[in-house]
Amino acid sequence: MAVLETTILLILLVIISNIISHYMVFMPTALIEIALGVMAALLLNVQIELETDWFMLLFIAPLLYADAKHFPKKELWELRAPIFANAIWLVLLTTLLGGFLINFFIEEISLPLSFALAAVLSPTDPVAVQGIAEQVKLPKRLLSLISGESLINDASGLIAFKYALAAFLTGSFSVKTATTDFLYMAFIGMLVGLILSKLFYFVETILLRQGIQDVILHVSLQVLTPFIIFIAAEIFHASGVIAVVVAGVVSIQQEPLYRRQYSEIKLVSTRVWDIIIYQLNGIVFVVLGASLPFAMHSAIINPAINNWTLIRYVVIIWLILLIIRTLWSYGYMWFSYIKSRNLINIKPQFYTALLTGLTGVRGAVTMAMVLSIPFFLINGEIFKERYLIIFLASGVILTSLIVAVIALPFLTKKRTRLILTGDEAFMDTEFEETSVHSDLSEVEAKKLMTKKRLTLSKKNKNLRTKQL
């Protein structure tokens, strides 16, 4: 199918999925979009070659930039320690410990390839996190922690995956080289994001001072900002992900360009960004759904491995990731508690750590990375384990999404209050059912609104009938 037709179809599917979500409020829009993507692949034979480079530029760059730009500055500063701990150290722990455990339970995967699989599954997906959060009433600070983590861990996950895969393909690995490259990519990425963000701000200021207040011009410049910053960082072989995140965070601290709060430029810019994010968020999951059938097909029909064995492997890997993330969160909370025991008397609860583990869902970023695995080895032989790795990664993505959708609403029925001071995170749970409207989740609020609309419509209909 031509590129133009595919693009139109993707946009149409996003619109249809959001219409369906208003009737199926119990199901996250992300899962509906994935389901429509799977149907498009199976019924319409829609095939999308998900390449990491263009996917990161076209989708991840603007989404991360928008998320970072609107991230609360105060919460970002307060949560800086746990965010960076999860985004860097947890990714490293997941890659190493997860790699050893995957190799222990799944004999078909060698140790270097197990590291690569664990690395590709280590970053959480920011779009998936937001999609899940819409369905349940997660504590605000916990959601901020997970969202902030997902802004950064894409970069660390990509680097870990790159070197783990290189170690498998070449048979050699240098800790010194990997560490040096990571520091270079992170530092230069931060520098590029900082400089270009200031540069774009300066250009817009000069244009406004010159009397150039063309709305379309300014909005176009703002929309292009994350793409140009991402490309510039990649030119310097730095991390485009870190560059756009830093640019978004820096933009929070800049003085407003427009004197009037509701100026035309600001209003149009906000609405344009809303439309862009709305479409990109949806297309990410539709593309993910369309990629799943073809990614899994070769592994499923492989006679060397039983299909039930493949499913068992997926569950094992998901459990490994969940346990590592949950225990890490629980251990970090105890570390923070001991560190500040004179300030906070509430002990960490395992319930909080479990919520953190379950909300660590994987998404399209993982899919884009795993599909970048080459078809052939360096010596020209076929990469036999490629389809197995793709199947396992795809299965873990679906499992993490589905389990989060089922488990989180059940676990968050209790009213929760997250107390977070500095880098300490604790949950104080009150065993009361949500009874006031302010405590309703978005799903419950939608149900209530729909019920009220139906009741009002019924009353109006009866009133018109009586009048007749």
Could you walk me through the main structural features you see in this protein, from its secondary elements to its overall organization?
The longest helix has 37 residues, at 264-300. β1 (414-421) and β2 (424-433) form a beta hairpin. Strands 1-2 form a two-stranded antiparallel sheet. The protein has helices at 3-21, 29-43, 52-69, 73-78, 80-105, 111-120, 126-133, 140-170, 175-209, 215-235, 240-253, 264-300, 307-339, 350-358, 364-370, 386-411, 442-467, and strands at residues 414-421, 424-433. The model is unreliable at 415-439 (pLDDT under 50). The protein has 468 residues and is mainly alpha-helical. α6 (111-120) runs antiparallel to α8 (140-170) and α13 (307-339) crosses α14 (350-358).
Overall pLDDT, averaged? 79
Strand content: under 5%
Side by side, the strands of the main sheet go 1-2
How far apart are the termini? 55 Å
Q: Order of helices and strands, N to C?
A: HHHHHHHHHHHHHHHHEEH
Structural class: mainly alpha
* Largest sheet, strands/sense/barrel: 2 strands, antiparallel
Structure annotation, total helices: 17
Approximate shape = globular
Unreliable stretches covering 5 or more consecutive residues: 415-439
- Radius of gyration, CA atoms, in whole angstroms: 23 Å
Tell how many strands the DSSP assignment holds: 2
> Percentage of helical residues?
over 70%
